Known about the structure:
Layout: E1 2-6, E2 9-12, E3 15-17, E4 21-23, E5 29-31, H1 35-41, E6 46-47, H2 49-56, E7 62-67, E8 74-75, H3 77-86, E9 89-93, H4 95-105, E10 111-116
Parallel strand pairs: 6-8, 7-9, 7-10
Antiparallel strand pairs: 1-2, 2-3, 4-5, 4-10
Helix pairs in contact: 2-3
Amino acid sequence: xxxxxxxxxxxxxxxxxxxxxxxxxxxxxxxxxxxxxxxxxxxxxxxxxxxxxxxxxxxxxxxxxxxxxxxxxxxxxxxxxxxxxxxxxxxxxxxxxxxxxxxxxxxxxxxxxxxxxxx
Length: 119
């Protein structure tokens, strides 16, 4: 479960991460590999189809996307299409609200998340 977030960090299961993370339904955490976004858009504020595919490969029932402290990150059109094709529920919003929603449902559903920690 998430314990909190502030600009530049997020705390998950008692560990503070100072970078964007992917959380898989089994609780495993990996850093977000921003090269997908950086190479295509020269920014980490675009969440790409390839990043979504990594999370979808874990067969979640719900996908949560934290778009940053102020919600400035967004899904590319291809990423949105990938989520629709998977026919799973996606919750997209500012990171503070996204982690709160994650905590509310994680005990009852298989949840995967991408959490962006800056703006």
